[in-house]
Amino acid sequence: MILDNNDGLLLIRHDHLYERDWRNDDCYKLIFSPYGQAEYQLSQGDISIGQNEFFIFNPNIDHKQLKATKEKFLVEIQPSLLKETALQLGFKVIEPEFSLLSYRHAQIHQWTSFIRDFLMINKDSNPMSNQLFLENSLAQISILMLQYGSGSHQNQFPKIISKQNINSVLNALKESYQEDWTLDQMSLVAGMSKYQFAHLFKEETGISPYSWLQLYRLFKSQQSLIFTDQTILTIALEHGFNSVSVFNHLFRKIYNKTPTQFRSIHRK
Predict the structure, then answer these.
(1) Nearest-CA neighbor of 115 among 96, 149, 99, 139?
(2) CA–CA separation, 97 vs 225, rounded Å?
(3) Which residues pair with 48 in a beta bridge?
(4) pLDDT digits (tens, 9 = 90+) for 187-208
(5) How far is CA 154 from CA 147, 166, 217, 223, 240, in A?
């Protein structure tokens, strides 16, 4: 089923889940995986989207769908709508830019569950009703993407409403993200075994504790790249990375550009 207008589209599909053609679209694309693992190939490497996780493609990113479990749920948003929404919400950005990382957030999950249920129940509704529903839905998901989709457009890292012991760890990591955290130290803050903690953290956020920490370090480094003249090496070390090569590699993997390229673009 597809609903579309000039601002974007909603798509639910249960066939052709193993397509192998490369695509390059001039829109933002949110992929949600309701039943299990979805896999996409990018030039940077393969992306795996776990159950109830989402991934946002920025415009003009080469990608190829390798697999989707039982269902493909896709939202396309035209850049003009997302830019307009960003301006209305007070984001000071040239263009919203999302991290190339699958993620999990309760607000996105809640929205996608409602949309999927509505579309399946009302797939034979009259076209005018569907168009009104689509218009409102695209406006809603644009807001949610900007608020909860991790990316360089944000001044604050997306908040997660999680279980208390996970929140305690998240707060501790934010306060001392430059430190060389171990899984044992994180699990000690959570008050559980490291195996329990790692499983619960992944279940709540969609990524591992260390991946979350690295993503937060990248987020914090953005301000130094844009507003200071510090060297890339200095910024990397001050934000908890052991080497500039690790910082450069991860930055390029997540943002599809080097820190130097990011600095040049955002300073303009």
Answers:
(1) 139
(2) 16
(3) 39
(4) 898 888 888 888 888 888 878 8
(5) 8, 22, 14, 10, 20
Q: Mind listing the pLDDT tens digit for each residue in 86-143?
A: 888 887 766 788 888 888 888 888 888 888 887 777 666 666 677 778 888 889 899 8
What is the pTM assigned to this prediction?
A: 0.76
d(CA 82, CA 149): 12
Tokens representing 27?
Answer: 């829109």
Q: What CA–CA distance (Å, rounded) separates 134 from 138? A: 6
Backbone angles phi, psi at 187, to 5 degrees: -65, -30
239 near 217, Cβ under 8 Å? Answer: yes
- Whether the CB-CB separation of 25 and 31 falls below 8 Å is answered with no
Strand pairing report for 63-67 and 53-57? unpaired
Closest to 183 in 3D by CA, of 174, 191, 195: 195
Q: Over the stretch 138-161, which tens digit does the pLDDT of each residue have?
A: 898 998 888 888 887 777 776 666
